[in-house]
């Protein structure tokens, strides 16, 4: 075998080895990217599932609950396309699609669910912030039109405001029950300040007016309470003076 043929075979073998190495490297890179995407999608699915399970019953209206269900369904569709042989993805997708259909058939829930536990409020606000951020991502990726994204974002924003007020409303109720009208008035002023900051469109004007009326009523109650306490103090002072006089007289008797 001539030297030229040997050199040619060696060169061909090297070319094949290089091609195989590049191919294996590309496959590994693709598999790594696939695993990264799959992990990100699974994490997103867990987040949406957590939302569906963690929001208090009736807290989300029909539109927002349907949005979360559709987002979860979209994630499982992507996971199924990524790994068609994965039976779990197919099963979860079918379950979520059934949930979407069930939510669509539900009546609109207009009831306001108030929260009073600070820990629960903190967790719910965290979930709402996450949902608000994902709405922005959907809009940015052109998967959600501007008008729909704006409407959904405003609904979530309203819930964030409402839950922040729930803590203060709980304070108002507690102060009222403990007959501390001035403390209740303090909480009401904080509520009004928060609502005024969000009242550009006038959507909170009626609530603000109602809280102001409540302040007026509590101020009258506080005034009556102060007058009563003044009377009690005066009576106590008179009683103390009478007791002191009696003791002095008793000494000289």
UniProtKB/TrEMBL annotation:
TM spans (from-to): 6-27
Keyword Transmembrane: yes
Lineage: superkingdom: Bacteria
Keyword Transmembrane helix: yes
Coiled coil: 201-235
Keywords, ordered alphabetically: Coiled coil, Membrane, Transmembrane, Transmembrane helix
Protein name (Swiss-Prot/TrEMBL): DNA repair protein
